[in-house]
Amino acid sequence: QVQLVESGGGLVQAGDSLRLSCAASGRTFSRYAMGWFRQAPGKEREFVAALTWNGRNTYYADSVKGRFTISRDNARNTVSLQMNGLKPEDTAVYYCAASNSIVAPIIRDQYGYWGQGTQVTVSS
């Protein structure tokens, strides 16, 4: 089992950057594929980015490809999301999630552990 706590959200202007971090508890963090999802008001939670347990394979939603970078540090039990060139449409609550899958899923239901979320607001 793993517990996840996100941090790093905030209010920024369009074009700015933010780095989200997710701290995981437990000694088995390196076994999990990790992902970031986001949920805007009135919308469903959507996939943003994911990476495999070893960080070698990464996946991105088309809407963030080229602007966001997901990474992990298994020694520190953390996963990060570097967000550059932020746009107002990136405004959402961002969630960190862990999956037992060998691959890095893009489907929300394949993640069994979730953080509480961190708010990102991008003003125009």
Structural overview:
The protein is an all-beta fold and 124 residues long. Helices cover 0% and strands 48% of the residues. The chain has strands spanning 4-7, 10-13, 18-24, 33-39, 46-51, 58-60, 68-73, 78-83, 92-99, 113-114, 118-123. Strands 2, 4, 5, 6, 9, 10 and 11 form a 7-stranded mixed beta sheet that branches. Strands 1-3-8-7 form a 4-stranded antiparallel beta sheet, with no helix packed on it. The mean pLDDT is 96.
Key features of this structure:
124 residues, mainly beta, seven-stranded mixed β-sheet, four-stranded antiparallel β-sheet, 11 strands, 0% helix, 48% strand, globular
Kindly summarize this structure in a few lines:
By secondary structure, this protein is mostly beta strands. The chain is built from no helices and eleven strands. 0% of the residues lie in helices and 48% in strands.
Mean pLDDT: 96
Q: Strand pairing plus helix content: what structural class?
A: mainly beta
Name the poorly predicted regions: none
Identify the overall geometry. globular
Q: Could you state the order of secondary-structure elements as H and E?
A: EEEEEEEEEEE
The CA-CA distance between the termini, in Å, is 40 Å
Number of helices: 0
Radius of gyration (Å): 13 Å
Strand content: over 45%
The total strand number stands at 11
**Helical content (DSSP H or I, runs of 4+):** under 10%
State the major sheet: 7 strands, mixed
Topology readout:
Layout lengths: L3 E4 L2 E4 L4 E7 L8 E7 L6 E6 L6 E3 L7 E6 L4 E6 L8 E8 L13 E2 L3 E6 L1
Parallel strand pairs: 2-11
Antiparallel strand pairs: 1-3, 3-8, 4-5, 4-9, 5-6, 7-8, 9-10, 9-11
